[in-house]
Amino acid sequence: MAERRIDYIFIKERTGPLEKIKSSAVVFNQPSPAGVFPSDHFGVMTEFDEKR
User: Fold this and answer.
1) pTM exceeds 0.70, yes or no
2) Backbone angles phi, psi at 27, to 5 degrees
């Protein structure tokens, strides 16, 4: 990787179902078996604990 970047997930309010982050991970950062990446950017996937 020639250059490292930081991605952010912005939320309007940390209340309700978005109050607590359960996990966060980089996705689409591995090539397919043919050596092709799904995008020219990696993704960020974040799961939130649902407040009940």
Assistant:
1) no
2) -125, 165
The domain in which residue 12 lies consists of 1-52
47 secondary structure, DSSP code = E
The total domain count for the chain is: 1
8 near 26, Cβ under 8 Å? no
Which is nearest to 10 in space by CA: 52, 49, 51, 46? 46
* Tens digit of each residue's pLDDT, the chain (52 residues): 446 666 677 777 666 667 778 888 888 889 999 999 988 888 888 888 776 6
What gap in Å lies between CA 24 and CA 48, rounded to an integer?
A: 9
Angle at 44 between CA 51 and CA 23, to 5 degrees: 35
